[in-house]
Design a protein that fits this description.
0% of the residues lie in helices and 40% in strands. With 267 residues, the chain is mainly β. The chain has one domain: Cupredoxins -  blue copper proteins (Immunoglobulin-like, Sandwich).
Length: 267
């Protein structure tokens, strides 16, 4: 059966502030002029993309690797291979662009399209691939284990059914996600393995690239509200317009870690 691999862990810090302001260097050159060929929605209707970027505001946090011992990683890679210890929960580029942000636009009257085939979330060398997966409501997800060691898929869902199932090497498990929410996932056997499936009520979605940029195609001229979600930085919002000729300005939305209140010392 054909599987769909979606481009798309676990909450460690609560966060977020947002602002929309002058475009940083990370967003320069993203505006759509309307001069490029538009995507045809049907023979009579032209549609256009919205572009932008999500950037980090404030003091940059330290970049840390995942803490994984050699004993914990045994069997995860080939004998001469090294485990990828990149912490994907907060990836900030050199120009402050934030990767792995989910950007969504709710379009009035849209007909939600659900993939006919399961969307694949794989486990490869003791990492979930992809770290963030976006699917529309009603999608069937297939959790696959491509490793030679066993994993378990432990989901932390509030609206969909939460599962905690062992998946032997080479096996898979399917689940239909029928409610909109961000579902946190981890492997209890290998606790550094974390991921999210973002279940959206719209097909107009994007996952930000490594430089924080994104593109959402297929939109008619008009005004739109964007919503942003990030697993550690929380949520943000913005608005953008597409002119009748398809031109639009790139939007920049800023997210920041929420400052934790200082505890008063007892005297």
């Amino acid at each position: 059966m054909q599987r769909l691999a979606a481009s798309a862990g676990f909450v460690a810090l609560a966060a977020s502030t947002l602002a929309v302001g002058p475009l940083r260097e990370a967003c320069m050159g993203l505006a759509h002029t309307g001069e490029h060929p538009a995507q045809a929605q049907d023979e009579a209707t032209e549609t256009f993309p919205i572009t932008g970027c999500i950037v980090f505001e404030g003091e940059l946090p330290k970049t840390l690797e995942l803490r994984v011992s050699d004993a914990q990683a045994k069997g995860c890679t080939a004998e001469d291979g090294k485990l990828d210890k990149t912490d994907r929960r907060l990836l900030i580029g050199p120009k402050r662009g934030i990767a792995n942000c989910v950007v969504t636009i709710a379009v009035e009257g849209q007909e939600l399209r659900v993939p006919e085939q399961p969307v694949l979330l794989d486990q490869v060398q003791c990492r979930f691939e992809s770290h963030i997966t976006i699917v529309p409501v009603g999608t069937q997800v297939e959790y696959l284990n491509s490793d030679t060691v066993a994993h378990n898929v432990h989901t932390f869902a509030t609206k969909n059914k939460a599962i905690n199932n062992m998946i032997p090497a080479g096996a898979s498990l399917k689940q239909k996600l029928s409610e909109a929410e961000a579902v946190a996932i981890k492997c209890d056997i290998h606790p550094w393995m974390t991921a999210y499936i973002f279940v959206a009520e719209t097909n107009f979605t994007a996952l930000t690239r490594a430089d924080g940029s994104f593109t959402i195609p297929g939109l008619l001229p008009g005004d739109y509200k964007l919503e942003v979600w990030h697993e550690k930085l929380g949520r943000g919002k913005g608005t953008v317009s597409i002119a009748a000729d398809g031109a639009s300005e790139a939007i920049e939305i800023k997210l920041a870690l929420k400052q934790q209140p200082r505890r008063r010392r007892k005297r």
